Structure formats: C-alpha cells, structure tokens
Amino acid sequence: MAVRLPRPHRDDVRIALAGLLGGLLLWAIGLGTRPDDEPIVLWAGSWPVLLPLCVMAGCELLRRVRPRTVLLVGTVALACDTVTQGSLVTVVMFTDLVYASVLYGPPASARRIPWIMGLLSVIGTVVPTAVWRVPEAVLIGVIIGLVTLAPAATGWIVRNHRDAAEAARLRAQQTALLAEMDRSQAVSAERARMARELHDMVANHLSAIAIHSTAALSLDDPDTSKEALGVVRENSVAGLAEMRRLIGILRDSSGDTEPVAAPTLGGLGALVDHARANGLDVHLDCTHTSLPAPVEMAAYRIVQESLTNALKHASPGRVTVALVQREHALDVRVTSPFGGARDSGPRAPGSGAGLVGMSERVALLHGTFEAGPEGPEDLEGGKIWTVRATLPITEGETE
Known about the structure:
With 399 residues, the protein is an alpha+beta fold. It contains ten helices and five strands; from the N terminus they run H-H-H-H-H-H-H-H-E-H-E-E-H-E-E. Helix 4 packs parallel to helix 6. It is rod-shaped, with a radius of gyration of 44 Å.
C-alpha cells in the first residue's frame, strides 16, 4: 500500500520557491559565506553548495505538516553546508525551520526546542572560548544563538499569543452558547408563565359560558334561558376584560399599559361568589395572616382552577375550599363530588392544562401537589375529587 505524502501548505510552497530561487541567485553571482581556502571547507567549488540548498528548500515545503522531521533533516543539511563555501539563504531557511518547529510542532517539542537551542548557544560560546582563548571566539556562540535560539524563542512567543487568542475565542463561543441557552430557557419559562396566566384568567369564564349556553339551548323555559344568557353575558364581559388586560401587558404599544395587580387571597371571597353565581355550592374556610406575594398568587390560582374544574366536571354536591396556614407552609385543599351514577360526563371540554399549570406553580415554589379521587365510593358509586397543595413560606418574606 502506497504511503500518501501530506500536501504542503500554499504559503510553504511560496517560501520554498523563494528560498530556492534566492539561493540559486547568490550561487550564480558567486556569493558564498566563506572562501575555498578556509580549513573548514572540505568540499571546494561552487557546485556542492546546491545540495544543502535544495534539501533545505524541500524541508520548507513540509514545515507545517512535519515540523520535527524537517528540523532534523535541516540540521543535517546545515551541517553539510558548513563544510562547503556555504549559502546565506540555506542558513536563513534553517532559522525558519527552527521557528516553524516550535510554532507548529507538538506542545512537548515546542517546550523542549528553545531549551535545546539555548544549550547549544551556551556550548558554542564556552567551548571555543576555552579552547582558543581569544575574545573573538565569543562571536561563534552569538552566531549560533542568532541561528537557533532567536527563531526558537520567537516561535514560542508567537505560539503563546496564538494559543491565548484561541482560548479567548473558545471562551467567547462558550459565553455566547451559555447566553443563548439562558435566553431560550427564559423564553420557554415566559411562555409557560403566559400560558398559565391565560388559562387561569379566561378558562373559568369560558367554562361558565359553555355550560350556561348549553342550558339555554336545551331548556324551553324562557325565564331559565334568560337567566342563563345573563350569566353568559356577565362571563363574556369579564373574560374580555381579562383578555384586554393581558394584551396590555404583552403589547408595549397598547393603550392599556397599566400593570395588572397580582391576585391575592383577599379576592377569594369574590372568586367564590362568582362560582356560586355559576351554580356551584361552594363553602370557603380560609385562615391566614400576611403571606409572600408569590404564595398568595399561587394559592389564588390553584383555588380558581379547582373551582373551574369543579364547574366542568364535578357531580352535584358541595365544593369545599380550605386554606390553613402553618408555621412554614400554606395548605390548600379543594374537594368536590366526582363520578357516580348521576355523572354524565364533563359539562364543558377540558384539555388537562389546568392540572399541569397548578403543578408548575407549586413546583416553582418547591412545594408539593396532588390531585385525584380519594375515599370510598358512596351508594351511587361516586368519590371525592381532591386537590391538595402545600406551599412553603420562606422565612423573612412575609410582610
């Protein structure tokens, strides 16, 4: 199986061609780094210079994809160049290989190479000075440092800046992602809150309209039909007012921009009177002192939705609403007759959203919620439907 060589980067191809052409130009005009009569020159003549030059240009093609390999090969090519007349372009391309090996190489190599190059610079300074004992020998270490340590240190600095910029970019992406998640959660929570408010504010009126309009259509008694239509009109006007107030909250440009007061337990009396006017036999037992606004609103909505469900689904009989405040919680309990031989199905259609909304309200306050039939069946096969909620009262929130 043939091994596929990595494809060089376009910039690396340009660097290799520029280095090769520049080296050929210096070779053509006869410019070298040392004369033929120096003792270090083992390969005299101008042609041996081209071999290290071509190898170094080939290494430049793979400076990004194989940084460690080309550094080793380039080191061998530079050693061969030192025993010829030498080419300045070969030396310059080697410094670029050192720089690329630190910038593009693995993190471990990027950390080790500057230390290795620094050690070579020290050795290149100490050994010639100790052997020849002339001040000019220090220049050898300086030249080695310029060729090896300087590009390695430059690559390390550039790599650190690049890594810091990448880390900042990733942090910005994570921040944007978290912000989008928070926005989506906020939108979902607001939509759920609007759904609960819309259901609780309007469902009671619409249920009464559906029940009494059915009665008006099914009875031939003019007085009864007139009374039922009166209840229908009353609930229609009240429901329309609630809808307008809700629209006033949602639309900034609406003329009704005044905030709607949150319902409190002080309005339970009016709520029960309204349920009685719709035909329910409701008994209210409420004992409480000052409570936090979220607790009062949740309790009010739970009672409101329970009475709406009783109007739609309960069998004839008494509906009991009881609120008892304990030391750290408010207990809400609503009971109504359920099922039995007299039950002919719901008097108005339901979707089950009311129970979901009550459960969500209690969950937001970290309370407990239960709803369902309980107790033994009576002679007619009926049970008692009970809605029970416990709403914690956080200390320090009461007024």
